[in-house]
C-alpha cells in the first residue's frame, strides 16, 4: 500500500509510481534549475513528515519498504532548500535531521568487542563506529519476490535468510545490484552487503553530521554543535583509515568480517571528492583513475566490471555523474568535470533524439546501444536523469 504524503511530489517514472528517497534529491536539482522552488519545499516537507511519523525515510513511500531506508540525502535536500530560502531553514529542520541521524546510529550503545555490528552501526577494530546498509527483514523483497526466491533456490548451499538480508541491504544501498557487494565479482550468489562498510554511505553521514552541527551553531547551541563536529571529524578519519585503498590509490569499501578493503573500484569513491573527505594527493589519484579507467564516450561507467548487473559496466547513472562532476569541481579539476558533463549531456540528447525519451540509465561505452542488465527492463522517464540533465545544462551550457 502507498504511504500517504501531505504535499505534492515528483515520482521517478516508469514502473516507479511512488516517491523514492535518493532519487528525489537529483530530481530536486532539476526543479532548482527550473525555478520550481515550491515543489522542492513540498518534497522536503514530505520527507520530514516521514521522519516524524516513521522515525526514518523509507526506500519509497510503500508499506513494503518499511524495513529499510536508502542513501541518506535528506541533509543535502535541506541544504538545497536553505540555499534558496536562507540558512534559518536548517534550524527549522534540525529536529528531523537529528531524528534521521538517530535512526542511522540506532544500537550504537550495544556495540562492543563481542558484538561488533547492530542494525546500521559497526564497531571497527580501533573502536571507531561506521555504518552499513541494513534491512530489518530477512525475507524475499515483496517488490521482487520471484527473483529473490529463484536466486535462493538456485544456490541452495547458501542460507536463504542470510541471502535475503544481503539482497535487501543491497536494495537499501540504491545500487541494486553491483559487484561491489559480491565476494566474487562474477557470482551474484556471493552477495554479502551487510558485511560491507560502504564509502559513499559514510560520506553522506559525514555530511549529515556537519549539517546538524551547522544547525546547532545557527541556533546558538555551541556544545551540541561542537559534539557533532567532533563526531564528523572522527568519521572522516575513520573513512580515511578504512576506505582509502593505498594499493589501488582509490577509495573502496571495507569488508569488516574479513577485516580488509574490497578491490572493486567504483564511482562510490567520488563521494569522497563531493564531500571533500579526500586530501589533495588522494583527489589527484582518484582523478587520474576516473580519467583513465572510468571515462567513456558517454560519461563515467559505474564500476570497471561487466557482470550483467545494472550498477556495473557498461552502464552510467545520472546521480553518479553528478556526484563525480561536482566532486572534481571541488578540487579544481574543471576540465575533466566539463568533459564528463558534456559527454553525458550529449548521450542524453542522442538517446532522446533516437527514442523520444530520457532513460533511467545509459550505456556509456557503446552509446548506440541501450543500457541493460539487472532485474527489470530499463525504465523511461526518468526523474533523476531529467534533474541532473537540467542542472548540468544550466552549469555547462
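^ Assign residues to that structure.
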Amino acid at each position: 500500500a502507498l504511504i500517504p504524503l501531505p504535499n505534492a511530489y515528483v515520482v521517478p517514472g516508469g514502473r516507479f509510481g511512488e516517491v523514492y528517497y535518493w532519487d528525489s534529491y537529483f530530481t530536486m536539482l532539476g526543479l532548482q534549475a527550473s525555478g520550481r522552488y515550491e515543489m522542492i519545499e513540498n518534497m522536503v516537507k514530505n520527507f520530514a513528515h516521514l521522519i516524524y511519523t516513521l522515525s526514518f525515510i523509507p526506500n519509497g513511500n510503500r508499506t513494503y519498504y518499511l524495513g529499510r531506508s536508502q542513501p541518506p540525502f535528506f541533509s543535502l535536500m535541506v541544504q538545497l532548500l536553505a540555499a534558496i530560502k536562507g540558512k534559518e531553514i536548517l534550524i527549522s529542520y534540525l529536529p528531523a535531521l537529528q531524528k534521521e541521524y538517530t535512526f542511522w546510529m540506532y544500537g550504537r550503545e550495544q556495540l562492543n568487542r563481542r558484538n561488533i555490528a547492530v542494525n546500521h552501526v559497526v564497531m571497527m577494530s580501533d573502536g571507531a563506529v561506521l555504518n552499513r546498509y541494513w534491512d530489518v527483514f530477512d525475507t524475499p523483497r515483496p517488490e521482487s519476490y520471484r527473483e529473490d526466491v529463484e536466486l535462493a533456490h538456485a544456490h541452495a548451499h547458501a542460507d536463504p535468510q542470510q541471502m535475503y538480508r544481503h539482497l535487501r541491504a543491497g536494495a537499501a544501498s540504491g545500487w541494486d545490484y553491483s559487484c561491489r557487494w559480491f565476494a566474487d565479482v562474477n557470482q551474484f550468489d556471493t552477495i554479502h552487503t551487510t558485511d560491507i562498510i560502504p564509502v559513499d554511505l559514510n560520506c553522506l553521514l559525514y555530511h549529515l553530521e556537519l549539517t546538524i552541527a551547522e544547525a546547532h551553531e545557527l541556533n546558538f547551541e555551541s556544545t551540541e554543535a561542537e559534539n557533532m563536529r567532533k563526531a564528523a571529524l572522527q568519521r572522516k578519519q575513520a573513512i580515511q583509515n578504512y576506505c582509502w585503498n593505498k594499493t589501488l590509490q582509490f577509495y573502496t569499501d571495507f569488508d569488516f568480517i574479513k577485516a580488509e578493503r574490497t578491490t572493486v573500484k567504483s564511482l562510490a569513491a567520488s563521494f569522497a571528492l563531493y564531500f571533500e573527505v579526500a586530501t589533495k594527493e588522494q583527489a589527484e589519484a582518484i582523478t587520474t583513475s576516473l580519467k583513465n579507467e572510468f571515462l567513456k564516450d558517454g560519461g563515467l561507467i559505474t564500476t570497471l566490471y561487466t557482470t550483467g548487473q545494472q550498477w556495473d559496466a557498461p552502464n552510467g547513472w545520472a546521480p553518479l555523474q553528478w556526484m563525480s562532476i561536482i566532486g572534481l569541481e571541488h578540487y579544481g579539476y574543471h576540465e575533466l568535470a566539463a568533459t564528463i558533463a558534456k559527454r553525458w549531456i550529449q548521450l542524453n540528447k542522442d538517446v532522446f533524439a533516437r527514442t523520444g525519451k530520457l532513460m533511467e540509465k545509459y550505456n556509456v561505452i557503446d552509446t548506440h546501444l541501450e543500457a541493460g542488465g539487472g532485474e527489470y527492463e530499463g525504465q523511461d522517464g526518468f526523474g533523476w536523469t531529467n534533474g541532473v540533465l537540467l542542472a548540468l545544462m544550466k552549469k555547462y551550457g
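The mean pLDDT is 96.
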